[in-house]
Amino acid sequence: MNHPSALRSCLWFENDAQAAANYYVSLLPDSRIEAVIRPNDTEPNFEIVEFTIAGAPYMALAAGVRFEHTPAFSIAVLTDGQEDTDRLWDRLHGDGGTEHPCGWMIDRYGVHWQITPRALPALFTSDDREAAARAHSAMLTMKRIDIAALERAFRGE
Fold this sequence. Notes:
The chain is α/β, with parallel strands linked by helices. 31% of the residues lie in helices and 27% in strands.
C-alpha cells in the first residue's frame, strides 16, 4: 500500500471488488489501484483492493456476503464546471447508473454519488439569502445539476 493516509473509506461488495475499483479509478484524474490482496486461495471470492479516487484513499472489500449500499455513504465529487459535471454524470449514467434528484446518482455497483459543481455551494452560501433560496429551489427540480439554470434562478430570471 503506497497511500500515506491511515484512513480510508471501505466499500463492501459481494464479489468483483477489483472490477468496481478499476471502474472507479477510470472516472477521475489522480486515481489508481494501489494494491490487490487475496490472502487465501481457498476463498476465491475474498479480496481487498486498495485504491485512490481523485487523491482520496478507498478500499474495496469483496467477502461473499451481500450488504446493500445506502445514501448514508456517498462519494461526493466537486466538479469544475458544466462540462466536467456532464462528463462524469454521463459516464456514471451510461455505464448503468440511475439518476436521482439534486445531483445524486447510484452507479452500477449500487454505490451512491453526489455530483456537485463547485458553483452550487458558492451560490448557496451567498450573503443574498433570497437569491440563494431561489438557487436552492431550482436545484430541487433537477437531477443532473444545470449551472446556468441555477445562476438564472439566483439572479431571479
